[in-house]
Amino acid sequence: MPLKALLMAGALALMGLALAQEGVDPREEAKRQKQLLLETAGILPTELIVEQGKDLFNRKGPSGKTMAECDFGLGKGVLEGAAARLPRYFLDTGKVEDLDSRIITCMTRVQGFKPAQVKRSEVVAVAFYIASHSTGKPIQVRLLFPEERALYALGEKLFYARSGARDVGCATCHVTYVGKRAGVLPYADVLGKDKSWTHWPAYRYSNDQIWTMQDRIRACYGNIAHPQPDLYSLPILALELFLAYSNNGAVVEEWPAFVR
Amino acid sequence: MKRLAVMVAGLVLLGLGLSQVSPFRARLEAVLHQGGHEFAQVMLSQDKGQALCSQYRDKLPADLIPGFLAEQKALIKYPQSGKLLGDWKNGEKVFTDPKRGNCYACHAGVASEVAHGTMGPPLTDYGQRGTLEAVVRYTYEKIYNAWAYVPCSLMYRGGVHGLFTPEETADLVAFLLDPNSPINRR
Fold it and tell me: Contacts of residue A95 in chain B, CB cutoff 8 Å?
């Protein structure tokens, strides 16, 4: 498949440049790198993954159904703006779900895949595809159901909790030390002006990785030498709901995003 | 007795405070374990200092500060030998090691070392303060438990968490204060 090779070549091409550009505004720099990659490869990695996700979306599962049979919150098969309203509570599962977990629900409950058959790479690709239908949409996350309110409260606690051998928590870097840096990137104001919720899912050109917010949060725990919460687990979902709600009204510039 | 101890620990957990009722706590514990047992364990073993900093979002009410500082001070252990000024050469190793001191992540140190963070004040020429007993003791205690002087500081309590030993703390002190240490020579 040329996809992988193309991605590799593109990523390698801009690595050297990326390293030489410290001290530049990271968002501006990402835009520049994106343009550069578009000129060299002719297509963006984000676009390739979205195409992959589209194929998976339209693939029939063991039940004979495609993902168009699934409800991502706005009705069966409706993708326009759906991702911008997640996470939310779903009556059919009785759970709060984000984009990742709703995709799994779709694959297992509707398409008939066994949970063990669900590949992470496929979930991410489909997330890229579904998210691409929310570019230009404002984030609209509500706390209507008691389950949503309880999870939000937990997310807030986790966000401000200081724990582990490094005595830190999300708020230490992303509230108290916003704008400071330990590595290359300054700490983002994730609850406020940086509108971080709208930056994921994204392609990270510096590491050639495709990540959803789940991966981003787990990586932050990893950075502080903290055991990471499992993928799709409630602590991640709780933090996501808290982050998304804090960014309500922010308009998605582009999903999937292209970040350092 | 054990059960009671567990309850009390649970109540300060994540800074939930003493007024929280237990169904909430039970739910919280269940949710944390859903994220994996190792993850839950670190969250559930939050100590009292961490819980207070969480609860008050790093801004402790003035009336809690003296008690907080005293409790943090009580967590400090000293070398068996009583010597708080150790070997600066080993101190430099601990200072640089990302798994132990990791001090360059936040502080400037030896002037020629340019790869350093700036979230803490520069420690270059720290030795200008001299080596009076009070300076040595403050430096030792600050490094072993930063929260004994600044509640909820970003600087984590490396000694308290066992990231370095009391002897290694004394070596770090020497690295900062010894006139022969490269941190004090340009």
Answer: none
Spelled out in words, what is the top-level CATH class assigned to the domain B46-186?
A: mainly alpha
B175 or A16, which is more confident: B175
Whether B28 sits inside 8 A of A181 (CB atoms) is no
CA–CA separation, A147 vs A139, rounded Å? 19
Dump pLDDT digits (tens) for A149-203: 999 999 999 999 999 999 999 999 999 999 887 777 789 999 999 999 999 999 9
Q: What digits encode the pLDDT tens for the residues B25-41?
A: 787 888 899 999 999 99
Which alpha helices (DSSP H) does chain B contain, by range? 2-12, 22-34, 37-44, 48-55, 65-74, 88-96, 133-144, 166-177
Q: Do B14 and A235 touch (CB under 8 A)?
A: no
Q: How far apart are CA A206 and CA A198, in angstroms?
A: 19
Predicted TM-score (pTM) of this structure: 0.90
ipTM of the complex: 0.87
What are residue A145's phi and psi, to 5 degrees? Answer: -85, 150
- Verify whether the Cβ–Cβ distance B58 to A176 is below 8 Å: yes
Q: Report how far residue B31's alpha carbon sits from residue B20's, in angstroms, rounded to the nearest whole number.
A: 16
Let me know if A220 is a catalytic residue.
yes
Give the pairing type, strands A209-211 and A257-259: unpaired
Select from B38, B117, B152 the Cβ nearest to the Cβ of A227.
B38
Mean pLDDT in residue range B41-54: 95
The architecture of the domain spanning A146-259 is Orthogonal Bundle (1.10)
pLDDT at A5: 41
Q: Is A88 helix (H, G, I), strand (E, B) or coil?
A: strand
The H or E element containing residue A209 is strand A209-211
Residue A181 at interface with chain B, using a CB cutoff of 8 Å: yes
Is residue A161 within 8 Å of B54, Cβ to Cβ? Answer: yes
- Of A92, A78, A91, A83, the C-alpha closest to A145 is A91
Residues B111-136 have a mean pLDDT of 94
What is the Cα–Cα distance from B27 to B46, expressed in whole angstroms? Answer: 17
Q: Is residue A9 pLDDT above 80, yes or no?
A: no
